[in-house]
Amino acid sequence: MTFLVTGATGTVGRLVVEELLAAGRPVRALTRNPAEAGLPEGVEVVAGDLARLDSLAGVFDGVEAAHLINFAGDDYRPLPDGAGLVKLITEAGVRRVTVLGGRAEGDLEQALAAADVEWTLLEPVEFMSNTLRWWSQTIKTEGVIKEPFGDRLSALVHERDIAAVAATVLAEGGHGGRTYTLTGPEAITLREKIAILSAAVGREVRFVELSVDEARAKWRADGMGEETVEFLVGALGDTPEAGYTVVPTVKEITGREARSFAQWAAEHAGAFRP
Ligand SMILES: NC(=O)c1ccc[n+]([C@@H]2O[C@H](COP(=O)([O-])OP(=O)(O)OC[C@H]3O[C@@H](n4cnc5c(N)ncnc54)[C@H](OP(=O)(O)O)[C@@H]3O)[C@@H](O)[C@H]2O)c1
Hints:
The chain has 2 domains: 2-116, Rossmann fold; 130-156 and 185-245 and 258-272, Rossmann fold, CATH 3.40.50.720. It is 38% helix and 19% strand. The chain contains 10 helices and 13 strands. A 7-stranded parallel β-sheet has the order 3-2-1-4-7-8-11, sandwiched between helices. Strands 5-6 form a two-stranded antiparallel sheet. Strands 9-13 form a two-stranded parallel ribbon. Helix 1 links the parallel strand 1 (2-5) and strand 2 (27-31). Helix 2 runs parallel beside helix 3 (108-114) and helix 7 runs antiparallel to helix 8 (226-237). The longest helix is centred in the middle third of the chain and has 14 residues, at 159-172. The relative contact order is 0.13. It binds NADP nicotinamide-adenine-dinucleotide phosphate. NADP nicotinamide-adenine-dinucleotide phosphate (NAP) binds at residues 6-13, 30-33, 49-51, 69, 71-73, 76, 100, 102-104, 124, 126-127, 130.
């Protein structure tokens, strides 16, 4: 029996693959583009598109447990037929499922709740890896971060801890029907985050605090659409309590302390140096 990972070329999925391999589990990885997957040796890479169920024939055959994303496409739209996907999964006899929770609101979770399968929803707060995506270029070239809400608190979580929880839940079972909020070990402000990153990089990163309107203008100039701009204003300006409340779930599930942002920054410092 094998373990299927969707989103396997993404930030979290790639690490779910690594964690399962490290635990000695056979892994099948789904991608729309196997030629560019760049996954480790030993992984069975299969082609398929979660938005087209007819492309998934055989993908779940012989699968004991599956890690699912709940979106399709590079703009993170909800899966067009989550219920159809769940039907494929249950008909193939998959016993356990983890779902990486996110913004996409489709019918996947509802269908899983009604299905005869042990499933677990993982609800991570802000990923530490966003730092790489959003800040590496500007820190490299300008040494400055321009953002609003300098005192905003976040309990940001290391993406490897999300993956470690997923791999443990998939391999061990016994977590069916649970929703796990996943955070790092501390809540830090944006200013503190920049100071930690500066120390790791070995170079001062300046912080320029923008007003909300200045931030809107900057994000539009960066090419973001109105919907994303307003999502960011809401998410960053009025972070829900869960986003800055530390919970012990990573340690409870994996037996390891959640990784800190200082650890993340030390691992990735090179990506922020010119
Ligand atoms: N960033 C955060 O702070 C944060 C916080 C909480 C939750 N989340 C949630 O985390 C999720 C994003 O995870 P991530 O950052 O690991 O993803 P990511 O790095 O953006 O990678 C996207 C993955 O989705 C796959 N994919 C996209 N469309 C597909 C399709 N139609 N069929 C099959 N595979 C498809 C891609 O695979 P291929 O291109 O190889 O096909 C790729 O592996 C979202 O649901 C988001 O809401 C993010």
